[in-house]
Amino acid sequence: MFVYEKKLQFPVRIKNTNPRLAALIISQYGGPDGELGASLRYLSQRYTMPYPELMGLLTDIGTEELGHLEIIGTIVHQLTRNLSEEQIKAGGFDAYFIDHTAGVFPQFASGTPWTAATMAVTGDTIADLTEDLAAEQKARVTYDNILRLSDDPDVNNVIRFLREREIVHFQRFGEALRKTQDKLGKKNIYAINPSFDK
Amino acid sequence: MEEKLAKNMSENDCVDCKMGSLPSCAPLAFPYVPVQGKNPQKYSSENALTRGTLFPGLDLPFMNDPNVSNPYAGTPLGELMALDFMIDELNLYLDTHSDDTEAFSMLQSAIKLFEEGKEKYVSIYGPLTISDLKNSSSYNWLMSPWPWQYEERK
């Protein structure tokens, strides 16, 4: 069960609208390495995790990612409020506008709708946690690239926060792999899949 | 004795808060991230929220350009967010360090401070969760702005 809390994890207050930037940042909403995929990946992988630490970590990080999805949605919404006709026609946002007006839709920056094909649930403890390490790095790169293209301090403040969270999550998934190794013993780590073989 | 000295030396090499521990005899073909040491250095709650982590050792900003403040710093909601963030961060840390008693008592005091602060906040600005309506005189869930709405500075 989830309980909604009427506040963001990190404050978002963007003075100047910028639809072109919104059309890029939307990728962290529903893009290949965005927050929607992150939350669904962890919240789906957790069911077959074999140890309480791993079930806990995937639940807790997956929940935080839902909060990040809300933060990105808020950035996109605030960047596209009260748009003028010139802003819409100026390019960069026109294609998005045709399909969604100023609605917030989970898609890649390149326009592809969000797809579950961007994430994996293998049902294998080590494969899933290793995928999670890669996922955090890919999300970090996307935030790096947003910081390269954006010069709005109100946006970059939030992006830097979210980028740092990917680094902390990477650390925790790495520690989760260590916990897994401790339980499996050192001789042959791949003798069984602890998510399936009891 | 020599062995003990050698152990102390290798521990001293790792006192930097950005260093963790690796297994001494790790199996091949398995990825490793060093485990963060127990009782790591910590930022204040407000600084932690601004930087995106409670732990200086994990603070690795792009182009070495970190946040220096956040837009709600010093406001009642900002203080609440900072405490809640500290809870989030200690929650994840304790998932993989459940025997760190200092971190656990820090989590407990953050929760207490958050609950006290929240009670005060809710009485002035309205509910944050539906259960905060328990002391409301009317259904004021819809009165305060939603978190995504842009607010002019008052």
| CATH-derived topology of chain A | Ferritin
Binned, the helix content of chain A reads 55-70%
Q: Which class of chain A in CATH terms? A: Mainly Alpha
User: Could you tell me the number of beta strands of chain B?
Assistant: 0
Structural class of chain B: mainly alpha
The pLDDT mean of chain B sits at 91
User: Count of helices of chain A?
Assistant: 8
Rg result of chain A: 19 Å
Mean pLDDT of chain A: 97
Shape of chain A: elongated
Rg measurement of chain B, Å: 21 Å
The biggest sheet of chain B amounts to: none
Figure out the total of helices of chain B: 4
Multimeric state: heterodimer
Helix content range of the residues of chain B, please?
A: 40-55%
Q: Do you know the CATH architecture of chain A?
A: Up-down Bundle
Provide a descriptive summary of the structure in words.
The complex is a heterodimer of chains A (198) and B (154). Chain A has 198 residues and is mainly alpha-helical. Chain A has a single domain, classed as Up-down Bundle (Ferritin). Chain A has eight helices and no strands. Chain A has helices at residues 19-25, 27-30, 35-45, 52-79, 85-89, 94-100, 125-149, 153-184. In chain A, helix 7 runs antiparallel to helix 8 (153-184). The mean pLDDT of chain A is 97. Chain B is mainly alpha-helical. Chain B has a domain at 37-135. Chain B is built from four helices and no strands. Chain B has helices spanning 2-13, 45-51, 76-96, 101-125. In chain B, helix 2 (45-51) crosses helix 3 and helix 3 packs antiparallel against helix 4 (101-125). The radius of gyration of chain B is 21 Å and the shape is elongated. The mean pLDDT of chain B is 91. Chains A and B meet through helix 4, helix 7 and helix 8 of A and helix 2 and helix 3 of B.
